[in-house]
Please model this.
Amino acid sequence: MGDRLKGLGVSPGLAAGPAYRLADPPRLPAPRPVTEPAAEAAAVAKALQAVAADLNRRAAVGGQAGEILEALAMIAEDPMLLEGAEQRTAQGLDAPHALEAAFGEHREALAALGGYLAERAADLDDLKHRAIAAVLGLPMPGLPEPGHPHVLVARDLSPADTAALTADVVALVTERGGPTSHTAILARGRGLPAVVACPGAVSLTDGTLVSVDGATGEVVTGITASEVSRVRERAGAERARLAASHGPGRTADGHPVRLLLNIGSAADLRPGAEGVGLFRTEFLFLDRADLPTFDEQVAAYAAVLAEVPDAVIRTLDAGTDKPLPFLGLPAEDNPALGVRGFRVDRIRPAVLDTQLEAIAEAARATGAEPRVMAPMITTRAEAAAFAARATARGIGHVGVMIEVPAAALQAGEILREVSFLSIGTNDLAQYTFAADRQHPDLADLLDPWQPALLRLIGECARAGQAAGKPVGVCGEAGADARLAPVLAGLGVTSLSMAAVMVPAVREALAGHTLQQCRDQAASLVPVG
Model:
C-alpha cells in the first residue's frame, strides 16, 4: 500500500486507476512592441468570440452543466471586458497582455465583493487562460485524454472543466475547493467520487495508480494493479447495491426520515425520492434583464406542483452576492452580510408580493398545497412578517430557512410563527465559522461534521420536536450519506439532496436503528 493523502470527501463512492493532472495554463510570452493597435484589438475580439463560441457549443449538453457553461460564455461576451482589453491595446499592449490586464482588473473588482461574486472571480482565471491560448493560436486549456479510465487531479477545476468531464473520468481530486464548490456540486450530480482540499495532489506523477474514497476524503497513492482491481470490484458491488435501493427513508427499526430533492425547475424532478425539499426559484430570475412576469412565475411553479403537490418552494434567494441588476440594489462593501434573501424585501417589497401571489395562483390551478419558505431569516419578527404575507395570500404551510446562527438559537421562538424549518447548512456553516464559502484555504471550517454546526442543527431539531413541527436539512450536508444517521439522531425529520445521492443516504439510514443514530449524534455533540 502506498502513501495516503487526506482531503475533504465531498461526493461519496470508491474509484481507482491511474491519476492524470489537468494541464497547466498557457505561458504568457514576453511583451512585444505594438505597431498596429487596431490589429491587436481585432485579435482580442476574435479570441473572446472564440472562447464564447466554444463554451456555448459545449453548453448544448443542457442541465446544470449547460447552465454553468452558458453563464461563463456570457462573461466572455461582456462588452465591458472587451472594451477594457481594447483600451489597453490602444495604450500599446499586445493582445495577450491586454487580455491579461483586462481580466485582472475584472477579477480584482469581483473578488473584493466576496460571496458569490468572489466565486465568479475565480471563473475569470479559466476564461483568461482560454482567451490567451486562443490569441496565441494554441489549443484551449482542456482535460487530459489518456484514452482509458483515470482519476483527474488538479489544483482546482473550473466550472467549464467540470462540466466537460467524459465517462473516462472515474473520480476527481483537487488541492483546492470546498464542500459547496462547483466541483463538489457537479460531482455529486454525476455520482462521481470526489475529494477536494487535498494537499499534495498535484505533485503526483501522471500514470500513478491511486484509489479514491469520496466519503472519507482518503486518496491512497502508489497502489498495485491488483489493488486497483479490488477497489473497482468493491465499487461495482456498491453501485449494484445502491441500484437496488428503493422505498422511503427509514432507519433499521422503521423511524421515518423523508428523502427529498433539491431542484431548480421541473426538469430536475426524478423518481425515487419522497418529494421536493428545496425548489430554488432564483434560477427563474438569473441571467435576465428584467423580472420574470407573473404569468411566467405561475407556469414555472405549477409545472413542479403538478408533479409534487407538497413541494417546498423557497422564495427568491438573491441580493448583492447573487447579482440581479434589475433589482436595483445598492453596491455593498460586504454583501455576504448585507441585503440578500428575505432582506431584499426591505428595498423591493413588490418582488416578494408578486412571487407569493404567483405561488398561490399555481397552487390553486393545480390543487396543490405547497410549503413556502423564506431564506436568510434572522429574527422571530422577520419570520412573523413573512408568515403574515404568505398566509394573507392563502398559503397554508409557511416555513423559514435557518442559515444564520441567531435564527438557530431562536428556533423555538421562530417555530411559534411558522410551521416548519429547513436548515441551509452551507450558509449556516459560513456564518457560524466566519469562513467565506469560496475561500480555498478554509474548506475544513465548512465541513458539515464540525461539532459547532451539528450543535446548532441539534438545537433546531429539539425545538421542532418540542413544537411538534418538522425540521429538515436542505444544504449539502443533507447529501452526506455518512452524516445521515447523525442528523437523524439529532432529530432531523427530512434530508434534501440531488437525486443521485438519494440511494446512498437511504441505505445509510437503513443500516442503523434510531438508537444507534442517537448514540452517534451524542458522541459528536453531547447534550447538556
